[in-house]
Design goal:
- With 425 residues, the protein is α/β, with parallel strands linked by helices.
- The chain folds into two domains: 104 residues, no CATH class; 301 residues, Alpha-Beta Barrel (TIM Barrel).
- 28% of the residues lie in helices and 19% in strands.
- The chain has ten helices and 17 strands.
- The chain has an eight-stranded parallel β-barrel, surrounded by five helices. Strands 1-6-7-8-9 form a five-stranded antiparallel sheet, with no helix packed on it. Strands 2-3-4-5 form a four-stranded antiparallel sheet.
- The protein is globular, with a radius of gyration of 24 Å.
């Protein structure tokens, strides 16, 4: 904020130590570009204000340029926020303090205005919890700013353990708090060590532990969790996936086990969370039907019944340009995929990934696809109860609305943004 450079700063645990100007870190004015509005510590490690001061949180003390100063809080500080040109701090009891001379207590009132939840219908994919690469260097606040500029109301991010989920939780408690933009965590059992050759029991245990460990940090912060990401892909042994005979009898028990385990693990932590299950193969609706109806593949077209029934709250599906029209899928079969999903499960449908054909598309054909696909999905959403469509993805060299540098916007960025602006839901 204006004049922040001359105000006294604050440490937790009372003002005594802080008022002595303790040098707790060798941090100096190292930047002149202010951090993005909404940046928080955590998940950022430092914040630069408009005057170039560097703020950090060290041993629960707020510091400016390496010197801790007094906020007036008698309790440890747990969060620093840069919002609207002002530095704020929150203590362990949830009490907020506003930078000034002296600092002002705001009580439990979060300085970020409450925002009505954005529509779930328009969503995006990203990889916020990656520990390296462009998603690591692009702060949650900066990613949120992109989502808000696009008009996306929900952000699908993968997690394969408690640490990755904590990154998402920090974002939800930080930059995303009060923004109206939700996060959909998608559990990735393959990254957690799931092997299709494992027994159903072993796969269930892995899935259950994954569900529990990933959900604990997110309890109370998310409403939805996607259990698995295209786990069907390594199981297909023939055909296009529309027949039970297309699926491996040997690997199916492990697939069913890990899906069941993830669902049960999530629900064990928070039974109010709505869970979804997806498939990645275009005609793999049969795999979902088999899970739902307790059918196992045995080499025949119909399979064999008697297995545990799997239940979810949201039917999730992936569809890319390379699979052509979702209403006339499978070549001559001309299968209406949304109708099959609606009739088979009676649950809301989310397309948690849709996108163009990667490097096979030019920037202009990718943008044209975005407009065409979103036009179709919006036109059929009420007929099939399609609640959400999620573009893949924000930043990616082949599929991104933004190129791998995290800065250069492709024509598809404007196509998405303009469609959402012109077609509110």
């Amino acid at each position: 904020m204006a004049g922040a450079g001359s105000t006294a700063l604050a440490a937790c645990g009372g003002g005594g130590i802080a008022d002595e100007g303790t040098n707790v870190a060798s941090v100096s004015k190292a930047a002149t570009t202010a951090s993005p509005d909404g940046t928080t510590i955590p998940s950022a490690t430092s914040i630069v204000d408009s005057a170039g001061n560097v703020w950090t949180l060290v041993s629960n003390r707020v510091t400016r340029n390496g010197t801790s100063v007094a906020t007036g809080s008698a309790k440890p500080l747990t969060l620093i926020l840069w919002y609207g040109g002002v530095i704020y701090a929150q203590n362990a009891d949830g009490i907020w303090y506003k930078n000034g001379s002296p600092w002002t207590s705001l009580g439990a009132n979060d300085p970020r205005p409450k925002t009505n939840a954005a529509s779930l219908f328009y969503g995006m994919n990203g990889h916020m919890a990656y520990n390296s690469g462009i998603y690591k260097t692009t702060t949650p606040a900066a990613q949120l700013a992109l989502l808000q500029d696009l008009g996306a109301g929900i952000y699908r991010c993968d997690t394969a353990g408690a640490g990755m989920s904590q990154v998402l939780a920090d974002a939800l408690n930080g930059a995303f708090k009060g923004s109206g933009v939700q996060i959909l965590p998608v559990l990735n059992p393959i990254s957690a060590g799931w092997n299709i050759t494992s027994t159903e029991s072993a796969a269930y245990t892995l899935g259950y532990n994954l569900g529990v460990n990933c959900t604990k940090p997110l309890k109370g912060l998310v409403k939805y969790v996607e259990c698995g990401n295209e786990c069907d892909v390594p199981l297909k042994i023939g055909g296009n996936g529309a027949s039970c005979a297309d699926w491996s009898p040997a690997y199916w028990p492990s697939f069913r086990g890990v899906i069941r385990g993830m669902i049960d693990g999530v629900k064990a932590v928070d039974p109010t969370i709505q869970v979804g299950v997806n498939v990645g193969i275009p005609m793999a609706y049969r795999a979902l039907q088999m899970l739902w109806n307790g059918i196992s593949p045995d080499g025949t077209a119909d399979g064999v019944g008697g297995a545990a029934l799997v239940r979810w709250d949201i039917t999730m599906y992936h569809w890319y340009k390379s699979s052509y029209d979702i209403l006339y899928a499978g070549g001559p079969a001309r299968v209406d995929i949304p109708q099959v999903l609606k009739d088979s499960f009676g649950m809301p449908i989310w397309l948690t990934e849709f996108g163009w054909s990667g490097s096979l598309d030019t920037p202009d054909t990718a943008a044209a696809y975005v407009t065409k696909a979103m036009t179709q999905y919006k036109s059929i959403k009420d007929k099939y109860n399609i609640q959400c469509i999620m573009m893949y993805c924000v930043i990616d060299p082949n599929y991104g609305l933004i190129q791998a540098d995290g800065v250069t916007k492709n024509p598809a960025y404007s196509a998405y943004k303009n469609f959402v602006a012109a077609n509110p839901v």
